[in-house]
Design goal:
Blueprint (H helix, E strand, L loop, with lengths): L32 H31 L6 H30 L6 H34 L1 H7 L2 H25 L23 H39 L6 H40 L9 H25 L1 H14 L13
Helix pairs in contact: 1-2, 1-8, 1-9, 2-3, 2-5, 2-8, 3-4, 3-5, 3-6, 3-7, 6-7, 7-8, 8-9
GO cellular component, one term: plasma membrane
Family: Belongs to the G-protein coupled receptor 1 family.
Subcellular location: Cell membrane
Length: 344
């Protein structure tokens, strides 16, 4: 989701231009070669980690039937979103970030900006849906199996994709977000920026971040409160449990561990995206004074959330950890079996 500052200069004399043969070309961003190389290395590494990590999640859930569950179908869809962001958005954003130029034309700029907003919004809404799923599993366990089914989860996922598509493409293609900013958004050749006026800066941020984020925080606070009560209750009964109760206790422990893992995912999401959305809301009220490089850095910090999710699963979620090991072992030619019990 991009929103680059308008704090640019119109003086191109003595500067390298994005399109030297065109009148009214944007100036290229001048950087030392070592800085350009460092930026490309960092961004390419982030893109590769995002794509490969989320592909591991996609392959794991698709390949191992033991991972088929409503929760994991949400995570599967989330991984598809994050992988798509790494393939379809981040490479083009990388070139624009380093050179300060958009070389692919006005129409593809619209498509890129729409996909950027759509995929980032969809990723955030998926994390919100995961928190709802965990709330039902931990706080309403008796109703969970009847209320949260694969069919219902699939419907919710489709709704999220549709809402994000209509909202994002609708905003970008109609330019409703830049109404009243015509004097500021007079683009030069090689520019591809997405700016929001005061109204739409608030509306878009509320819909795509602050409302889902608030829901997630409230639900996880409730989840941890219930999890602590369960933990105290089980400690009191530890000396008198039966074998059947031990089995139920292990199940509850796995549920709490999954909830904590997904809370870490939420924390990473807040850390990565909160600075960007705060700046998006504030920037129109300070006449877009935020430097372009600062805004660009915040965008990439937000992208980094899509890199973090599979890393968190690998280190904190035992089922995925075992599945990743099997897939990587097969990829490098080691003999293994996919019949290993992932739930052990």
């Amino acid at each position: 989701m991009e929103n680059i500052s308008l704090n640019q200069t119109g003086d191109t004399e003595g500067m390298l231009l994005c399109f030297p043969h065109l009148q009214g070309s944007c100036p290229r961003t001048l950087r030392l070669s070592v800085i350009r190389v460092a930026m490309y290395v960092f961004m390419l590494t982030t893109i590769l980690m995002t794509v490969c990590g989320n592909l591991l999640v996609i392959i794991s859930i698709s390949h191992f039937k033991q991972l088929y569950s409503p929760t994991n179908f949400i995570i599967l869809s989330l991984a598809v979103v994050d992988c798509s962001l790494g393939c379809l958005v981040m490479p083009f954003s990388m070139i624009r970030s380093v050179d300060g130029c958009w070389y692919l034309g006005k129409h593809f700029c619209k498509v890129h900006s729409s996909l950027d907003m759509m995929l980032c919004s969809t990723s955030i809404m998926h994390l919100c849906l995961v928190s709802v799923d965990r709330y039902w599993a931990i706080c309403q366990p008796l109703q969970y199996r009847t209320k949260v089914t694969t069919v219902r989860v699939t419907v919710y996922i489709v709704i999220i994709w549709l809402i994000s598509f209509v909202f994002s493409f609708g905003i970008v293609l109609t330019d409703v977000n830049s109404m009243g900013l015509e004097m500021l958004t007079n683009p030069c050749a090689g520019s591809c920026i997405l700016v929001s006026n005061k109204e739409w800066g608030i509306i878009a941020s509320l819909v795509t971040f602050f409302i889902p984020g608030t829901i997630m925080i409230c639900l996880y606070v409730k989840i941890f409160h219930v999890a602590r009560k369960h933990a105290r209750f089980m400690n009191d009964r530890l000396a008198t449990v039966t074998c059947h109760e031990l089995k139920n206790q292990g199940s509850e422990q796995r549920e709490r561990r999954a909830a904590k893992t997904l809370a870490i995912v939420m924390g990473a999401f807040l850390l990565c995206w909160l600075p960007f959305f705060i700046t998006t809301v504030i920037d129109p009220y300070i006449n877009f004074l935020t430097p372009a490089d600062i805004f660009d850095a915040l965008v990439w910090f937000g992208y980094f959330n899509s890199t973090c999710n599979p890393v968190i699963y690998a280190f904190f979620y035992p089922h995925f950890q075992k599945a990743f090991k099997i897939i990587i072992a097969k990829a490098i030619g080691l003999k293994t079996t996919s019949n290993i019990l992932l739930s052990s």
